[in-house]
Design goal:
This protein has 356 residues and is mainly α. The protein contains 15 helices and 6 strands. The two termini are 40 Å apart.
């Protein structure tokens, strides 16, 4: 059983469904009727696998109202406002037609699909982007994706810099989509850009007033380094073992939140002890080597925190106080491994006040 299947069986992953479904094959049929297509070509096989391993679906979380309208509003606020400081040079200018004409075309296409006024569907936005860039015919009934559009643009002679800017636009579209869903479901967004240049726009989506927050005082600072197993060790473990390791972090997460909400010597000391105990448990289960040195930092501010994760050479911490949850550290570690990086991984977590 894969980690995804096990996590769903144990309730770590929850299903949100537009329509009531008795199982994954029926859910796949519903998605196809709505012309929602994933990048996976073997959908039936995946649905059968999930049905066999997970069993009948528990009651799905009901689909929130107004998701398309909220997504449209978020896209317009973030993509048509002032250029966020720290974006890749030229990206804002080179995506102007996508950020304006592309959104208008997507809204029109979405309204034809019975989306509420002002609402936008991500799939229609991708089709609209291909159309305004001149590489996709809206009369085509096929479903396209960002990768096909980039491939077609490359064949037309787009420069590497132009292709990178278009690719960043699609990253923005995806990340804003994640933020919209999280907020609609009442969850804290756990999102991070695929590169340092994309993060400023995510910050705009999560919190407008981030730049105006006062800097933390020294008394609000937690800084502790621990030794943890390397990603290579974790990748070789069974899904069951990984799920058990996840439970070890409950005390650490709880103590970190206590420090952030009420920073003082006692709460800081409690968080430091809990983190060291967590790392000791990980080392005890996985063995002593190879280990990575992880440095955890937290700064407590007025409101409930969101957590920042950065890794040297992958996300530049100098361009702003970007927000994500601690889930982002796992994504960064994965990105680090897939880039075939070697050596120590330095992870920094910083807590800042969330949007109200």
């Amino acid at each position: 059983m894969s980690l995804f299947e096990l996590a769903m069986r144990e309730g770590v992953i929850s299903l949100v469904s537009r329509e009531p479904s008795s199982g994954f094959p029926q859910l796949l049929h519903t998605l196809r009727d709505m012309r929602i297509q994933s990048p996976f070509t073997h959908g039936d096989r995946i649905a059968d696998r999930l049905a066999a391993s997970v069993g009948p679906l528990a009651r799905p979380i009901p689909w929130p109202e107004g998701m398309g309208q909220n997504y449209g509003s978020l896209l317009r606020r973030c993509l048509r406002g002032d250029e966020p400081t720290g974006l890749a040079p030229g990206a804002w200018q080179e995506t102007e037609v996508l950020r304006h004409e592309g959104l208008d075309v997507a809204a029109e296409l979405s309204s034809q699909r019975r989306e509420a006024p002002g609402g936008i569907r991500r799939g229609e936005l991708i089709r609209a982007a291909g159309a305004v860039l001149g590489v996709f015919d809206l009369n085509e009934r096929t479903v396209t994706n960002r990768f096909k559009i980039i491939e077609r643009l490359s064949a037309t002679g787009y420069s590497p810099q132009q292709l990178k800017s278009v690719d960043s636009f699609f990253d923005w579209v995806d990340q804003l989509h994640h933020v919209n869903y999280a907020e609609g479901l009442g969850a804290r967004p756990a999102t991070i850009g695929t590169g340092a240049w994309d993060l400023p726009l995510i910050q705009t989506a999560l919190r407008d007033e981030a730049q105006q927050e006062p800097p933390p005082s020294l008394s609000d600072n937690l800084d502790i380094a621990v030794r943890v197993p390397s990603a290579r060790i974790l990748r070789g473990m069974t899904p069951r073992t990984i799920m058990e390791l996840r439970e070890y972090g409950i005390d650490w997460r709880s103590s970190a939140i206590r420090f952030i909400n009420a920073p003082n010597a006692a709460s800081r000391h409690g968080a430091e002890i809990a983190l060291e105990q967590f790392s000791r448990k990980l080392r005890g289960v996985t063995g002593q080597g190879p280990l990575a040195s992880a440095n955890f930092k937290a700064f407590a501010l007025k409101a409930a925190p969101a957590l920042l994760a950065t890794v040297t050479d992958l996300v530049a911490p100098s361009v702003g106080p970007y927000l994500t949850t601690v889930a982002g550290t796992g994504y960064i570690a994965y990105q680090y491994v897939t880039k075939n990086r070697t050596g120590k991984v330095r992870i920094q977590i910083r807590a800042e006040s969330s949007f109200s």
